[in-house]
Amino acid sequence: MADQLIHVENYSFSINNNSILNNVTLSVHEGEYISVIGPNGAGKTTLLKCLMRIYAGGTGSISISGKPIESYKQKDLAKLLSYVPQGDSRNLDFTAYEFVMMGRYPHMSPFTSLGTGDKKAVSDALEATETTHLRDRYLNTLSGGERQNVFIAAAIAQGSNILLLDEPTTFLDPKHRHDIHKTLKRVNCTQGITIVSVTHDINSASLLSSRVILLKDGSVAFTGSPAEVMCNDVLEPVYDKEFLFTDHPSTGRPVIIPGDITL
Amino acid sequence: MKKTTILLILMLIAVAVLLLTPMIGIKVITPGDLFGASELNSDSMDSYIFWKIRVPRVLTAFAAGIALSLCGMVFQAMFRNPLATPFTLGVSSGAAFGAAVYMLAGMPAALFGFSGFFGFSGISVFSFLGAMLAISIVYGVTTLKRGFSTSTMLLAGVAISFFFSSLILFFQYMSDFSQSFRIIRWLMGGFEFAGYDSLLNMVPFILIGTAIVLWNLNELNLIATGDDIAVSRGVNVRATKTILFFATSLMVSGVVAICGPIGFVGMMAPHICRLLIGTNHKYLAPATLIFGGLFLTLCDALSRTIIAPAEIPVGVITALLGGPFFLWLLLGGGEGRGMLR
Question: Would residue B339 count as lying in a domain?
Fold first, then answer.
């Protein structure tokens, strides 16, 4: 299929003899907004890292834009895919501008100065994530939400068509979570960038995604539209917990409401 | 201050240091002594000391400073750890081990016509092999298992460092008095035997190593932010690290073979420069290599003047100056920039 950007077939991966992914088969089409959900330890992060070839090896096949992932140089892969890692406290002594500019790496060679194309891509990315005012701030001085936005800007500046995100909103307050979701929705709708986002936020997955992939114990347990996923027949066996659903008052999409806690 | 301004100032200081330090020593030799009334009087001795002894010595110290501090910067970026240096990772002791082996076993070999490879002296080649051996063991151990943490890698480096140091001690113990003294003096580090020959022997190692490092500054920036980010931006992290290990082994062994292991420059210079100019390696690398060069040259000038006519090994000076200064940095003198927070 021409519009199949990512195709994973019977892919298994293990770390130090612990099997993390088991016979995963899935595909991602152009323009989709996919949320990957599942309990802790289901292999969501590992799946993203295998797609980005941060982890290499494994059995089965992964193809990107119709070609096997092994056939790409890392630089060429980075022109097709970009990745936003899980938020963490790594010490980054770079300004936001420097960091986003580093996203242009796949298009740079040593010693050549930055072209106007690179500069434009960076300022566009800063604009798209509403972080232009942060450009000269050091990443270490930014709040978690600002920092996450800059990370997304760097991934957008990379100029790839597919954005892989690992729990982009997990540690953020509601306002910043909303801002990030808006940014993602916008680049998805206006720039046609395909999004694969790993998340624990099932409600946002339901409200934002065109399709949801449910992982459990390293395998795909279910894949379908938010409406198909958001029911206890699908979610209860995966999360080992019963959920209460209601319809969102404005979009009509199903969302989970917190259950009563009884002792 | 702008980063380019800081670089310019560093460069001017370096030029001043390079011009002034050859004049300092047991006897101060001024340009007047060299060029003034030279034709008639007996100043040819001054001229000899200046051009044949002090100038090559100053240049050797400067080159060694460049190499050691640049290696420190590369290791700190690759391991994302402020303690990573050629010393803590065992590269220095590997190189020292190789050189010690040559001092004991290579000397007899030289009698049978062995004197080096492709114009490089035997001691440099042995030293390089030792450095490569050490770094391959450290790197090899950590690639055996996925998910090795940086601190584990540093510990592996420390273990290997001790291992090689003990081997050197053992060799010393087994060797006769004069060989043993030679090794001890060399282990203290210093430039008093530096001449144009040894300088020329060292320069190719440092030039190639420095060129490789400067060629990989974009990669270093990304690796400093994390291997996962670097890979996702398109850096071939494994290949980059391998070539940088090769480059640092070249530089460290080039220096160690001639000057012995000189501590602290490699750890300190990059930290000080990060405080001055930030972590962006496009600026940090030039700053570090200039600063490392001028710092070691100054230390050497001190080492031959403080208790003149005797000399203090330069390694003693770098550690005596570096230790307290480093503690000051750690205690907040650096305002929490760079890797120290």
Answer: no
| Confidence label for A1 from pLDDT (cuts 50, 70 and 90) | very low
Q: What is the reported pTM?
A: 0.88
Distance of CA B180 to the CA centre of its chain: 24
Task: List chain B residues with pLDDT less than 70.
Answer: 32-43, 106-120, 145-149, 329-330, 332-341
Adjacent-strand bridge partners of A197:
A35, A165
* Residue whose C-alpha is closest to residue A96's, from A117, A128, A122, A124: A122
Q: Which of B223, B313, B250 is nearest to B86 (CA)?
A: B250
| pLDDT given for residue B337 in this prediction | 56
Query: Do B228 and A49 meet the contact criterion of CB atoms below 8 Å apart?
Result: yes
The CA angle A130-A51-A233, to the nearest 5 degrees, is 90
Q: What is the pLDDT of residues B27-78, one digit of tens each?
A: 777 776 666 555 555 567 777 778 888 889 999 999 999 999 999 999 999 8
In 3D, which of A83, A80, A49, A97 has the Cα closest to residue A155? A83
CATH number of the domain that residue B315 is part of:
1.10.3470.10
Contact B233 A106 (CB under 8 A): yes
Residue B341, domain member (yes or no): no
Residue B340 lies in a domain: no
Cross-chain residue pair B222–A93, CB shorter than 8 Å: no
What domain count does chain B have?
1
Q: Which residues of A touch B213 (CB under 8 A)?
A: none
Helix (H, G, I), strand (E, B) or coil at A84: strand
Give the integer Cα–Cα distance in Å for A211 and A138. 36
Q: Where are the domains of chain A?
A: 4-257
Six-digit token pair at B184? 């001890």
Q: Which domain holds residue B291?
A: 3-333
Residue B105: DSSP 8-state: I
CATH number for the domain whose boundaries are A4-257: 3.40.50.300
Distance, in Å, from the CA atom of A89 to the CA atom of B225, rounded to the nearest integer, reads 11
Residue of B142, B215, B233 to mutate, interface with A, max A Cβ within 10 Å: B233
Cα(A29)–Cα(A44) distance, integer angstroms = 19
ipTM of the complex: 0.91
**Each residue of B203-234: pLDDT tens digit?**
999 999 999 999 999 999 999 998 899 999 99
Percent of residues, chain A, with pLDDT higher than 90: 62
Pairing between strand A244-247 and A254-257?
Answer: antiparallel
Interface test with A, best of B149, B150, B232 (most A CBs within 10 A): B232
Q: What is the pLDDT of residue A87?
A: 76
Q: Would you tell me which residues 32-61 of chain A have a C-beta closer than 8 angstroms to some C-beta of chain B?
A: 49, 52-54
Residue B258 lies in a domain: yes
